[in-house]
């Protein structure tokens, strides 16, 4: 699916949303895509689509925080110690600790980075069931969505790649509406960006949309 960005757009990357034309000073419509992250297992208490979306937004903020801290650790390792997240080893060819490296500080930072990578993987790995539920809600009616086991034997849709976003709202008359995007649509790609790890930050998606003002933007 392709739509053309408005030349009057102000595209801001905010946590949890992609918001082309987020400043409505020119009356332009807004197309929002709620970014989805790791989610807990569905609860059997009849949550509706709005509750799911709030849950996904909260988890999105958590995963963004993990990404931010991990990037800060990588920057500190490079800037302060001249090493990376995993390389080089902290001993020389004879097995002695490197004399010019703060071994304790590097090990502490690398250990924290390992914990964060595990957290990121756990959040990412628990999102797809909720995405499928939310997508189904948009197809059959949001008010009918319940988080209970399916009563039919129809297998769930299997995505060809990790999702990048799920559309939360499309305003009438917007470029996204003209392209046929609907609330609940799962977005796998925005231009060259995809949900495959490492997932791009929201700022990268916003920058891509800015760069395409007045030109087609490809959504898949």
3D structure, described in words:
- This protein has 220 residues and is α+β, with helices and mostly antiparallel strands.
- The protein has 2 domains: 1-35 and 164-220, Roll (Pdz3 Domain); 37-160, no CATH class.
- Helices cover 38% and strands 13% of the residues.
- It has 5 helices and 9 strands.
- The strands form 3 sheets. The chain has a 5-stranded antiparallel β-sheet. A two-stranded antiparallel ribbon has the order 1-9. A two-stranded antiparallel ribbon has the order 7-8.
- Mean pLDDT is 66; it is low at 1-46 and 140-156.
Q: Percent of residues in beta strands?
A: 5-15%
How are helices and strands ordered from N to C?
EEEEHHHEHEEEHE
> Helicity range of the residues?
25-40%
So how many helices?
A: 5
How would you write the strand order of the largest sheet?
2-3-4-5-6
What is the first-to-last residue Cα distance? 6 Å
InterPro entries: Nas2_N, PDZ_6, PDZ_sf, PSMD9
Pfam family, one: PDZ_6
GO cellular component, one term: cytoplasm
GO biological process, one term: proteasome regulatory particle assembly
Short description:
With 220 residues, this protein is of the alpha+beta class. It contains five helices and nine strands, in the order ββββαααβαβββαβ. The relative contact order is 0.22.
List keywords for this structure.
single chain; 220 residues; Pdz3 Domain; 2 domains; five-stranded antiparallel beta sheet; two-stranded antiparallel ribbon; 13% strand; disordered N terminus; Nas2_N domain-containing protein; PDZ_sf; PDZ_6
